[in-house]
Design brief:
This protein is an alpha+beta fold. It has 19 helices and 21 strands. Helix 2 packs across helix 8, helix 13 packs across helix 14 and helix 15 crosses helix 18.
Length: about 675
């Protein structure tokens, strides 16, 4: 054995030792927040290492996961679909470019009766789809049902949105191209473009053009339901959390008022706290084939299933292409690259060419690190944070900072705030390993979050780092896959930058400090979540009551936004029930307390009000075990609908979904209008 070979093996062993040193912290992150198991893959300078946590299902009889255990990767599907689009554009036969308007591919949109697509040079195009630059989220979103069902089986309802919805003010002003507006519809449309241009399912295209060339033989899309539930390929089971005991501990501690951050932190650290209990749920149908055998629109945005071994193959090739591009002075020689490599090169051209303020490009969240500090010592954005993790730790630090400022003897609270902030200072040594002219570096990441599964990946191409975490659970309080991935990326990057060796005292101290900091961050996030949870449950209990199905019978009916986009309000045994798209989970409805009764034939009660406010938000003890998880944001108003335009019989003509993420636009133009009544 040569000296160089011996050194390489020693380095690999040292790196594996680093992951094992981190195992207790990661196992604690998973177990404390209701996660059953997961698989981790790390790529550094071409070397791969794997770490597996927990089990594939609940109980000691379940097998342990490994690097070929298959998980739903959810929205980590998007970079793969984006690459497929670049491969299609590069072949020259599709007559596609990034600037091609969507109407050129879907001629049925040309005669749209509205002006959504008709603003001069502001046509929605291929690049807009891949960069998530649209206004879909201001009207609806492509949801999966709480029990994992996918109501939309074809692309037609999404095309209906484009044909029939008016442009909102943001679109008219052209501002939609200056920021990310996350929506699954964009990637459902991108996949439909692939199918229109090739004549084959997008799933067949990605298998032939991406999975097969890269040797990703444990990666699947549009799996038939019977195969997903018990076929020849073993898929990891899906889980959520049972939280009755957890919520009871919270209520017993303080439920009548929103507890302070410090109070909830004490609860988490006390013996009274009851951790969430994992529960098996039906898997998300995002990865299933539709009734016709094709992928569903949700599958096109979040339905690929894979393993850590296969995903590292994809990320390794992506990093190799990054360095091939960086080592060339011109485009000459790129003709010798494979089809996948040419697609990745074009993809990276678009990512790198975006303005530094651009946060999403070509299927990737992008960030230039390090991020700038505000004057008060707080980072503008936690690079890589996903979902509710970042805003919750920021709020916790803010509250802790303000609390200390009001206490006697805390004149140096600002300095303490910066000190606390260091506990979650991510990639703090990045300036030592600069790759760009200004000493910063480009980082790419993406998360995934569907019923029964969470995932996260983080790439720093210049440093040849890729980390992927796949988890078979939607846990409670926080996204453990996201936080685990950030911890690993941070340690591996700093470990490499500092020239540390795993056997040195300095390295052990550094790793131990990072693990302590991660536990602090997790506690901050969970404590802030409890505060939000108490506020959510208090509002639901104090401001709303069950909508009696007899008393509000005149609200029963079908309400349509556009062709194929509708909701059904039906009469349940206990309450009115709300069902999106007429399929999947039926949400029990609550009416705002002291809301005037509706005039109906049965009640004979009159009122002069113009609207009735209801919500289909439900208590977390009922919500979380269905598989929806408990780490997303909590806001009763996200589920608030307002019945309007009552006739002389007290029957509403429409409702608006007062979705609090709306940004501008005319809400009355996107009302769900009654098309059928069951009264």
């Amino acid at each position: 054995m040569s000296t160089s070979q011996q050194v390489k093996e020693e380095d690999d062993l040292a790196f594996d030792g680093l992951l094992q040193h981190l195992r207790p912290t990661i196992e604690n992150l998973f177990a404390a927040y209701g996660n059953v198991g997961g698989s981790i893959g790390v790529l550094k300078d071409g070397h791969q290492s794997f770490l597996d946590i927990g089990r594939q299902g609940i109980g000691n009889s379940e097998p342990e996961p490994d690097s070929i255990t298959i998980y739903l990767i959810s929205s980590m599907t998007k970079p793969i679909v984006a690459l497929a689009m670049f491969i299609l554009i590069n072949d020259g036969q599709s007559q596609l470019s990034l600037d091609t308007p969507l109407m050129d591919v879907f001629p049925e949109l040309v005669d749209s009766p509205t002006n959504f697509l008709q603003y001069a040079d502001r046509h929605l195009n291929m690049a807009d789809l891949l960069d998530l630059r649209s206004t879909f989220l201001t009207c609806t979103n492509l949801w999966e049902s709480l029990n994992g069902e996918i109501p939309w089986q074809t692309i037609d309802p999404i095309l209906s949105l484009l044909r029939e919805l008016p442009a909102n003010e943001e679109f008219i002003a052209g501002d939609f191209r200056h920021k990310r507006n996350y929506s699954n519809e964009c990637f459902a449309l991108a996949s439909a473009v692939i199918e229109r241009k090739t004549g084959i399912p997008w799933t067949s295209f990605v298998h032939k053009k991406i999975f097969e060339p890269l040797g990703m033989d444990r990666t699947f899309a549009a799996v038939p339901g019977v195969e997903r539930l018990g076929g020849s390929v073993a898929f990891s089971k899906s889980h959520s959390a049972r939280v009755e005991g957890t919520l009871q501990a919270v209520r017993s501690y303080s439920f009548d008022q929103t507890p302070s951050f410090r109070a909830t932190l004490r609860l988490l650290q006390s013996e009274a706290f009851v951790p969430p209990e994992p529960v098996e749920v039906s898997p998300s149908q995002a990865s299933w084939a539709s009734d016709t055998g094709a992928s569903t629109p949700m599958g096109e945005a979040a339905g690929i299933m894979s393993c850590t071994r296969d995903l590292l193959k994809f990320y390794r090739k992506f990093i190799d292409v990054y360095h091939m591009r960086a080592g060339k002075q011109s485009r000459e020689g790129f003709g010798q690259l494979t089809e996948v490599e040419r697609g990745m090169a074009a993809m990276q051209d678009l990512i790198g060419g975006r303005d530094p303020s651009c946060t999403y490009a070509s299927g990737w969240n992008r960030v230039i690190i390090p991020s700038a500090l505000h004057g008060d010592g707080l980072w503008s954005r936690w690079p890589g944070a996903d979902g509710g993790n970042a805003p919750r730790v920021e709020k916790a630090i803010d509250e802790d900072h303000n609390r200390d400022k009001t206490r006697p003897g805390c004149e140096h609270a600002d300095a303490r705030r910066l000190e606390v902030n260091l506990a979650w200072l991510f990639l703090r040594d990045v300036f030592q390993r600069d790759r760009l002219d200004d000493g910063s570096s480009l980082a790419l990441y993406h998360g995934g979050n569907m019923v029964g599964a969470t995932s996260f990946c983080f790439l720093i191409p210049a440093s040849e780092i890729a980390v992927v975490v796949l988890c078979n659970t939607r846990g409670f309080f926080l996204d453990a896959a996201n936080l685990t991935c950030m911890l690993l990326t941070d340690i591996i990057f700093d470990y490499d930058v500092g020239g540390r060796s795993s056997g040195t005292r300095l390295a052990r101290a550094f790793i131990n400090e990072s693990c302590r900091n991660t536990r602090t961050v997790a506690a901050f996030i969970a404590a802030q979540y409890i505060s939000e949870l108490v506020h959510y449950e208090s509002r639901l209990a104090n401001e709303y009551e069950i909508a009696d199905p007899v008393q509000y019978a005149s609200c029963v009916g079908t309400y349509q936004l556009t062709d194929g986009i509708f909701a059904v309000v039906s009469e349940g045994k206990v309450a009115l029930e709300f069902q999106l798209y007429g399929k999947g989970f039926k949400y029990p409805m609550r009416v705002k307390v002291r809301e005037p009764l509706i005039h109906s034939k049965s009640s004979g009660v009159h009122h002069d009000e113009k609207q009735v406010v209801m919500t289909f938000a439900i208590p977390m003890a009922d919500l979380v075990p269905t598989g929806v998880g408990g780490s997303n944001r909590l806001d009763v108003d996200d589920f608030k609908i307002i019945f309007k335009r009552f006739n002389e019989l007290g029957v509403p003509g429409e409702f608006t979904w007062d979705f609090s993420r709306h940004e501008g636009g005319r809400r009355e133009d996107i009302a769900f209008r009654r098309v059928h009544s069951f009264c």
